Amino acid sequence: MKNELKILVDKGEMLPLMEEFYTIQGEGYHKGTAAYFIRIGGCDVGCHWCDVKESWNANLHPPTEVSKIVENAKKYSDTIVITGGEPLMWDMMPITSLLKKEGLQIHIETSGAYKLTGIWDWICLSPKKMKLPTKDVYLKANELKVIVYNKDDFRFAEEQAAQVNNNCILYMQPEWSKRDKVIPEIVDYVMKNPKWKVSLQTHKYLNIP
């Protein structure tokens, strides 16, 4: 049975579902928008400041048929956000094809470290130094969101911005535990470099998921 499940997960017909919830998008371009979030387990990028480390081990999250995930998601919102973990560790084509058949808007939040699969209306690329994005994700990203934890992240942000397409919207977002220190630095940087915008985790200020 385990082998059968693995085959279905490898095909993207089942996914390790960590959680799903209806809330307000707190970050980036679509902040303030009601959306249904589907959090997929599994990530090996390894950000030490990650606030959902429980998503890393895919084996902790039950393989769930994508048809069931979609059936539930469509009850709540026209906007679906697939996040993780790192969702691109799995083939996203089966779930996004079903979501598209329902006429839904589909967003992804990804580090871009794996091959881009699926059909997307919006790609939020949040690259990490430990495992850089693929060229395809750079070219197709709608927004670039760089998490600022220390001063070196400003250098990294510019390095990443040089690789995305010209229409990609550029965001710097403070890492939550360092926000009091880095927010003034981000504000100063964006005022000097206005191609960038500031993104905040507004859902945390609103005390919602």
Automatic annotation (TrEMBL):
Q: Which UniProt keywords apply?
A: 4Fe-4S, Iron, Iron-sulfur, Lyase, Magnesium, Metal-binding, Queuosine biosynthesis, S-adenosyl-L-methionine
- Residues reported in the UniProt entry to bind [4Fe-4S] cluster: 43, 47, 50
Highest taxon listed in the record's lineage: Bacteria
Q: What reaction does this catalyse?
A: 6-carboxy-5,6,7,8-tetrahydropterin + H(+) = 7-carboxy-7-carbaguanine + NH4(+)
Q: In which pathway does it act?
A: Purine metabolism; 7-cyano-7-deazaguanine biosynthesis
Extract the Gene3D superfamilies matched here: Aldolase class I (3.20.20.70)
- Which InterPro entries does the entry link to? 7-CO-7-deazaguanine_synth-like, Aldolase_TIM, rSAM, rSAM_sf
Enzyme Commission identifier(s): 4.3.99.3
Q: What does the Swiss-Prot or TrEMBL cofactor note state?
A: Binds 1 S-adenosyl-L-methionine per subunit.
Pfam families found in the cross-reference section: Radical_SAM
Its cofactor is: S-adenosyl-L-methionine; Mg(2+); [4Fe-4S] cluster
Q: Cite the binding residues for S-adenosyl-L-methionine.
A: 49-51, 85, 126-128
Name the residues that bind substrate.
Answer: 24-26, 39, 83, 209
Coiled-coil blocks: none
Start and end of every Radical SAM core domain?
30-209
Recorded hits in HAMAP family, A to Z, give: QueE (MF_00917)
Hey, which family's this protein in? Belongs to the radical SAM superfamily. 7-carboxy-7-deazaguanine synthase family.
Q: How does it assemble?
A: Homodimer.
Q: What does this protein do?
A: Catalyzes the complex heterocyclic radical-mediated conversion of 6-carboxy-5,6,7,8-tetrahydropterin (CPH4) to 7-carboxy-7-deazaguanine (CDG), a step common to the biosynthetic pathways of all 7-deazapurine-containing compounds.
Q: What's the protein name?
A: 7-carboxy-7-deazaguanine synthase
> Which organism was this protein described from?
Litoribaculum gwangyangense
Gene symbol here is queE
